[in-house]
Amino acid sequence: QEHMVESGGGLVQPGGSLTLSCAPSASIIGILHMSWYRQGLGKQRELVAEIDNDRNTNYADSVKGRFTISRDNGKNTGYLQMNNLKVEDTAVYYCRAEGWSMRDRGTRAFWGQGTQVTVSS
């Protein structure tokens, strides 16, 4: 079971904040690139933010200025700080990471199973 595990989702009012975390299973090491996607009901999955090994970042236009992606290499964990949340941010948020698989002895992509973020009054 090599996968990422997301946490931190929940229900929040518009204008509120949440921080999502993304941690690998024990057999995944050396995360090189990490990204967050989301998929709202009736919508296609979209890239929200990404960060490389040098902490270069990229954001979707819809979240620029509100979301911040970061990483803690010591913990091998990524984060998505979401501020000033809007109703349209409601979605299942997924973490994707590229790292070294101890099982496969090589680099590949890993996905989490998602965490629900609901923004509602």
Description:
The strands form two sheets. Strands 2, 4, 5, 6, 9, 10 and 11 form a seven-stranded mixed beta sheet that branches. Strands 1-3-8-7 form a four-stranded antiparallel beta sheet, with no helix packed on it. By secondary structure, it is mainly beta. A hairpin with a 6-residue loop joins strand 4 and strand 5. 0% of the residues lie in helices and 57% in strands. The chain has no helices and eleven strands.
Question: What are its keywords?
Answer:
121 residues, mainly beta, four-stranded antiparallel beta sheet, globular
Summarize the structure.
With 121 residues, the protein is mainly β. It is built from no helices and eleven strands. Strand 7 and strand 8 (77-82) form a beta hairpin.
The average pLDDT is: 94
Model regions low in confidence, pLDDT < 50 over at least 5 residues: none
Q: Class by helix and strand content?
A: mainly beta
Strand content: over 45%
Report the strand count: 11
Give the ordered list of helices and strands: EEEEEEEEEEE
Tally of helical segments: 0
Instruction: Report the biggest beta sheet as strand number plus sense, adding barrel if it closes.
Output: 7 strands, mixed
Distance between the termini: 37 Å
Question: In percent, how helical is the residue content?
Answer: under 10%
General form:
globular
Radius of gyration: 14 Å
Summarize the helices and strands and which ones pair or pack.
Blueprint (H helix, E strand, L loop, with lengths): L3 E4 L2 E3 L5 E7 L3 E12 L6 E6 L5 E3 L7 E6 L4 E6 L8 E11 L4 E6 L3 E5 L2
